[in-house]
Amino acid sequence: xxxxxxxxxxxxxxxxxxxxxxxxxxxxxxxxxxxxxxxxxxxxxxxxxxxxxxxxxxxxxxxxxxxxxxxxxxxxxxxxxxxxxxxxxxxxxxxxxxxxxxxxxxxxxxxxxxxxxxxxxxxxxxxxxxxxxxxxxxxxxxxxxxxxxxxxxxxxxxxxxxxxxxxxxxxxxxxxxxxxxxxxxxxxxxxxxxxxxxxxxxxxxxxxxxxxxxxxxxxxxxxxxxxxxxxxxxxxxxxxxxxxxxxxxxxxxxxxxxxxxxxxxxxxxxxxxxxxxxxxxxxxxxxxxxxxxxxxxxxxxxxxxxxxxxxxxxxxxxxxxxxxxxxxxxxxxxxxxxxxxxxxxxxxxxxxxxxxxxxxxxxxxxxxxxxxxxxxxxxxxxxxxxxxxxxxxxxxxxxxxxxxxxxxxxxxxxxxxxxxxxxxxxxxxxxxxxxxxxxxxxxxxxxxxxxxxxxxxxxxxxxxxxxxxxxxxxxxxxxxxxxxxxxxxxxxxxxxxxxxxxxxxxxxxxxxxxxxxxxxxxxxxxxxxxxxxxxxxxxxxxxxxxxxxxxxxxxxxxxxxxxxxxxxxxxxxxxxxxxxxxxxxxxxxxxxxxxxxxxxxxxxxxxxxxxxxxxxxxxxxxxxxxxxxxxxxxxxxxxxxxxxxxxxxxxxxxxxxxxxxxxxxxxxxxxxxxxxxxxxxxxxxxxxxxxxxxxxxxxxxxxxxxxxxxxxxxxxxxxxxxxxxxxxxxxxxxxxxxxxxxxxxxxxxxxxxxxxxxxxxxxxxxxxxxxxxxxxxxxxxxxxxxxxxxxxxxxxxxxxxxxxxxxxxxxxxxxxxxxxxxxxxxxxxxxxxxxxxxxxxxxxxxxxxxxxxxxxxxxxxxxxxxxxxxxxxxxxxxxxxxxxxxxxxxxxxxxxxxxxxxxxxxxxxxxxxxxxxxxxxxxxxxxxxxxxxxxxxxxxxxxxxxxxxxxxxxxxxxxxxxxxxxxxxxxxxxxxxxxxxxxxxxxxxxxxxxxxxxxxxxxxxxxxxxxxxxxxxxxxxxxxxxxxxxxxxxxxxxxxxxxxxxxxxxxxxxxxxxxxxxxxxxxxxxxxxxxxxxxxxxxxxxxxxxxxxxxxxxxxxxxxxxxxxxxxxxxxxxxxxxxxxxxxxxxxxxxxxxxxxxxxxxxxxxxxxxxxxxxxxxxxxxxxxxxxxxxxxxxxxxxxxxxxxxxxxxxxxxxxxxxxxxxxxxxxxxxxxxxxxxxxxxxxxxxxxxxxxxxxxxxxxxxxxxxxxxxxxxxxxxxxxxxxxxxxxxxxxxxxxxxxxxxxxxxxxxxxxxx
Length: 1299
Prior knowledge:
By secondary structure, the chain is mainly beta. About 5% of the residues lie in helices and about 35% in strands. The chain has eleven helices and 83 strands. Strands 3, 4, 5, 6, 7, 9, 10 and 12 form an eight-stranded mixed beta sheet that branches. Strands 27-26-25-29-34-31-32 form a seven-stranded mixed beta sheet, with no helix packed on it. A seven-stranded mixed beta sheet has the order 60-59-58-62-67-64-65, with no helix packed on it. Strand 5 (about 80) and strand 6 (about 85) form a beta hairpin. The radius of gyration is 40 Å and the shape is elongated. It starts with about 25 loop residues before the first strand and ends with a strand.
């Protein structure tokens, strides 16, 4: 394939060799498919026509078998000397006194030989067919293919005989004793027309180009030649007649041959921008990385050898990898990376794509250090747009040192952007200030491929006096669209047509600007401007073209681009909304994200989990929360609604798909002063398809694609610093179809195992839902009001997180340290309480407004840390300031234990939902307590949606399910049961229990249960689950209170529903705290050291305003200093309950005392009591003294046995009391509050000041919490009034009650 195509099988061909100008030793070898390695090789000697030598010997030495790639003993070759084993060679017979010409020819394919005869000198007289002046040597070193002739003078006597020595060796193959170097006694062949270049040596060669033709300069060591070491010399081509170009076509029309396939990745010391050199990453020892060109239909085999000291991988941006998702090259998403010293071959089938793409080193963001290049797929047939020639322009931002060390600093120092840290621009791989001219010929049309290989900065490009016509964007051909200037975000690619002017009278200048709107502007540095020459004629004057303003210029617009292949707008089957959040923790660390959590890969590549987890692969939880996994059903049309409510421009990249760009518009908060307000823009008819999209500051975009490519695909941020800090989402696309149609190559698994990474299991490498060992996720909660209707009534401004409502659950593993970063986008302060979490040693993180903190001010950020090493089970998170959880600020928090005795989990949440904002409603209700209009009744929500629209509970026969039932409501109780199924309680409020079989579960506000549901043995029937929402203290009304809901329990689609006779709730078994036994069987605490008796009371003022309270005081947070701050700052006075103000109802507890609380509720209202910081034992309940009237429900007395149940919340029925015990072993300030929000709002609560002396010794109030108070004008020390001592001047008066 250099000089000929080869002789076809079964054909013949005669080679004619004219020897008139040459004599000496040569050889013949088969070159097609390296056939000389399979013995097709022989010596060729052209004798001199005159002065023949006295005696000629023709030893021929060659290898016995092919050298394999490994260096195992059995793979080392043996040598042949004159076609026989080197150890059994024939004798060489000399006659005394004669001279012999010995011709040495090396026909081996890899090894070198050294030859000498002890006691004899040799005189070289010919090398490589060239006669030489005699050169006396002791021995000759012969590389593969080399030939020498030497004269040896025989001794004058015939005694003694001598031994000749031949040594076969290879300096680049590891020596093995007795194998390399091998010694043979006999002659050793050599090679000519070649030069031996020793290790760490170079050579200079010269020759006259007097032989027109195509000549190969090749590496004669076949192991090297096979891997690509060779070049062609096209010598005097004007003297060659050729039928076509390298593709067999005319002109520049290249259907290209298979490209170079070997890439050696290593660090190289280099400076690309004139600054100090540093160890960048190069390919085959060079930077920039050369573009790879293929033709549509080629199957590219790209062999990568990793010489770094860390793993590496290659991602092919824009290539869909349809059917080969495991070739996507995303580190710890689709592979573990190629280990140091290993190789891997990426196989890329280009039959379905053409256009301009890029290659990126994806592990450890190696493309930032230079592992990036172009990948161009040329059209096999006539392209959509005609042109004469192609030009390539690449744009890169290049930093002053390695990316990862820089990012570790940048993560912790948000303002770390000194002048020396700004990148410089590279154009076509070199300093943007030293660019080469774009050379144009008048009248010609050029295709300019403009590709950003940038990691952070945008680039604009224009040629004043010339229009550009976009004909391709991200691999999708477009109808020509005329622009004045291009604006190219990181990793974006365009092709534009440039029509040269008709005259070469003038040259022109092109302009490039490199900028980033989210990085501090600095003269010359950001933006950084470059210019280059557009040369029509060398030396022509440069024409000064008037500059247009940016507003006057036409720029690319994705809504104006029309693809050549016109596809209609897809109709969405499902929509996912993601909102960018970027927050700093109290430790100065910044994190970004698009969903619930800051993106971070798991411990097992998500694709490997999707392949190995069977049916569980359809459950996003198994991938780990930090992966931000979303499962997409096969062939569904997915709409992504991507919001950027920040000052940072973003660029999103979707792997595995080109998406339709459906709509741009202003993001929710793009109306504030000095923020741009973007118009809503939509495509006219045929939406553009791309794999990247720019979302400007305070803008949103909607994109759509069909989930027709099973695999695991990343939605990532093209701005590398943003992706590094967590802007990413993982789509698990049709994992069931993936498992059927694809198989994970064994080689990819082995690459993981070599690095100690598991190749199967969930995100932690475990089975099922056990995520033990997975580092905790960084959760980002951007709390804001969102206009929504959750129950079908009129929308109102509820509170959501990251523009989501319902708020997705948070899953962690026991032992994780949960970091939950909250940004407050409300116009009021906010705080989060972790319901049921003890916060032992971190009382200041309990999240109760004006009790343990002041709340997060509007526009500020705070990170809550939750250490889960001592707790597991079912909990939830609630917005505690201003009762914001009543407006939607609530989410389940699940702490998974290491082991499980069930097959699957199902989470069900219950909420009561009102028709408008809670505080507004309560202000009205406080003044008109007897008013109960229809709109005042709550609707039920199940799993965050209208309870009338619930999704089926899907069960598989015989499997065991853990149902986690979480009440996140504010006033009503919920009863839940499934017809024809028993439930077995195994957990209540985070405390594991002995199994207790029940017919259904009755949950009060804030309570949680886990029950085991054992599926029926067959799928013959489907069933119904029933939910009843009720409150005994709210006026009953049919259809309003109680409300009943039903949902399907589905075993098989379409199966008949098995009916069940109706039954009274009183005949069913429900959980009773006195029947539950904790699994750890902790005994009843001893007789209490401290007894507190609390009795409910109420009072209606003269203005008709009702108040509730305990022991004569209505609880209120009217204090001017958070109670915990007073406990920290008042030293010994902290043990005096009066300093906290009467409305705090403070009770001081001594360290380690056993505390018993008796709560009496002699009214018709049911209550749920919740204690922060503790789980308590429920030791007794019974009727209150006035529970005797006929209309009151009799409450039997019950006392705990040996192992009383522990919970953090307890239901207290009307006209009853309950006794609770706990040990005061958690210093802090803890609230005892009513779970019914209307009751708590009206004053049912008290405060425990637990061991304030120990609190002051063992804990310290974080400075960040103090600063949040000061920003709101709230004191951070002193008593409840902010004064010293017992002076409570300025504190609003308490409301006292009649008991």
